[in-house]
Amino acid sequence: MATAYQRVSDGSNILVTKNGEIEYSIEGEGIPVLMIHGAGGGYDQGLLMGQTFLGEGYKLIAVSRFGYLGSPFADESTVENQAKLYADLLEHLSIDRVTILGVSAGGPSALQFAYDYPDKSAALILVSAVSMFMGDEIPISTKIVNGIQKSDFAYWLVIKTFRNIFLDLIGVSQEVYSNLNHNDKEFVDKMLEYMHPMSPRRPGNIHEANIRPMSGEAMGELSVPTMILHAKDDTLVTFEHAEFYHKHIDHSELAAFDSGGHGMASELKSIRKYIKDFLEKTY
Residue limits of the AB hydrolase-1 domain (predicted)? Predict the structure, then answer.
């Protein structure tokens, strides 16, 4: 735990703005990409996702959303206010335009930024992303995960002792994991590792159930080129979320995968190609 806390504290910066505070980290050179992490994440998960989905040739600007790691939870932790902080960060970094890549629960604020700041948004990429309110009734699997997240030790113990069960809870089935090649298994293993330490991520994770994504009608006004990538067998964020995005965002592209689960770890090579081709057309 000491090593994990040292890793996350040494790897980031905190920007204080008139709209609040935001934690961020920058890695690489090239096309600037604003990385928006999913549930249980933070800026470190954003960097991992950027390295995995994009590879070299990109400047990864990874943030921690409200309530994750060094970004405090605010009274008005809405997607609109989160998008304002993204804009503040880009202004601070003197970056005029970015590609925005939102993963899972990072989808709503990624979309909100592209909607509110189209002049700053070159392209939008949504990976296994939430598009609709998940409902007032919290699934039992989410309640179990939230309980585990109360304690750094509990999370460590669970992934050491009941690892396969925990992967199932976060949308990576045992069947998907067992069929992965060595490199793709390393990605999943590192994703679990990068959820250490867990307790500083819990306030943001608990808040995910309250996030109200943009309406379908508002999505229809989006002018930013959009790529949607999602697996049909995703049990955590179902494929209907991708269909909702694709239905309402004009001229969006949908890359649908028959399998891969929530993390789509079995499709990483294909994902990189889809994104590369999409950005080559966009830029």
Answer: 32-262
Question: Which pLDDT score, from 0 to 100, does residue 69 have?
Answer: 96
User: First-to-last CA distance in the chain?
Assistant: 42
Say which DSSP state 215 is in: P
8 Å CB contact between 69 and 32: no
| Cα–Cα nearest to 224, from 255, 256, 249 | 249
Q: 127 vs 171, which has greater pLDDT?
A: 127
When the pLDDT of each residue in the chain is averaged and rounded to a whole number, the result is: 92
Tokens standing for residue 25: 């980290």
- What is the pLDDT, as a whole number, of residue 137? 62
pLDDT in tens, 258-275: 998 898 999 999 999 999
> For residue 22, what are its two tokens?
């935001």
Element (H, E) at 124: strand 121-127
Q: State which CATH number among 1.10.240.10, 3.40.50.1820, 3.30.750.24, 3.40.640.10 fits the domain covering 2-282.
A: 3.40.50.1820
CA distance 89 to 85: 6
Average pLDDT of the residues in 185-207:
90
- The domain spans of the chain are 2-282
Report the alpha-carbon distance of residue 262 to residue 4 in Å, rounded. Answer: 25
Token representation of residue 157 = 């113990």
Question: Distances from the Cα of 66 to the Cαs of 29, 91, 173, 203, 239, in angstroms?
Answer: 26, 19, 28, 8, 26
CB 236 within 8 A of CB 262: yes
